[in-house]
Amino acid sequence: MRYLTAGESHGKCLTAIIEGVPAGLPISADEINLELERRQQGYGRGGRMKIEQDKAEIVSGVRFGVTLGSPITLIITNRDWENWQETMAANGPPAGHPVTAPRPGHADLTGVLKYDRDDVRDILERASARETAARVAVGSVARRLLASVGIAVASHVVNIGGVGISTPRPALPELVAARSFSELACIDRDAEVAMKAAIDQARAAGDTLGGIFEIVAEPLLPGLGSHVHWDRRLDTRLAAAVMSIPAIKGVEFGAGVAYAGLHGSQAHDEIFYLPGEGYTRSSNRAGGLEGGMSNGEPLIMRAVMKPIPTLMQPLRSVDLVTREPWLANTERSDVCAVPAASVVGEAMTAIVLAQALLEKFGGDCLDDVLAAVDHYRRRIAGK
Fold first, then answer.
1. Four-point Cα dihedral 34, 36, 37, 42, nearest 10
2. Which of 17, 40, 274, 346 is deepest in the core (most CB within 10 A)?
């Protein structure tokens, strides 16, 4: 399974094409739109989210609510296009004011140098996190495939602006339920109050905040991914996928950086065998990954998001035309988008897991995939 996205932040629409989804998988635009709505929510979001009401239109690859095995095309219309038709026109003379003050922390400066552009807007429109709406739509299709074999993916925010949670992670259904009552996708009510106060303080100062979110996927079959080549390792692929989200600067699995302070006798998850249950562990410091493969334990992954670099109190920069000191360009932006990023993180995780699932059990139709999964489960149960 592979996919491509296209479209600019203030262009007419975002488009995604997904290839390799087996025939026979039920797909609903309503399910996709629920995920798109989740991405738009969160305390600390900016004015753009008040304009857009993202809805996906399925224009190919699905008939009567079921995939055909052919490429699936999804389109998300940008409502704000009405205000940008001249500035973002595909044809005709240039319109609008060129952006010539690149923002520190963005793709702006490096992009104009690499692609030989004079207007930073030629770079920032595609580099914008707006593109991730298309990835969330793709991720919704991937989640549907994972759900067909009983795998669920969820996330929650564990830190914003240095304010962390103290509530232990509950079982996945309880986590999803607790998260749904929070404007920050946070399961710790006391921490959420403090996080909101930090966001309010940053907004008043014209500043922004980053944070950390955690992704959980379970129950995973052992053996997704492979140890035989570096690029087939599941942890490699998951890390790359989540790191591809704008503003993500770090990823860890399981104990992560805490491994640095542990002895080997403390770090690893001992193996036990229980009749009727098979192989099991009493801990999950590995985060469900060993040797580049899922080991059957829940996948636990955390991602660090830097503060958004578009500031209402702009940082110092240089004008590209005059080379004189200048304040960076200011675009409409969020104060904090960690909850939204967690939804994108879920989508990217679901995409990678769906790809790994199809690589191991792939078939042209869903029934073939399910039969292969069932055969594998019965085979490893006898080991």
1. 130
2. 346
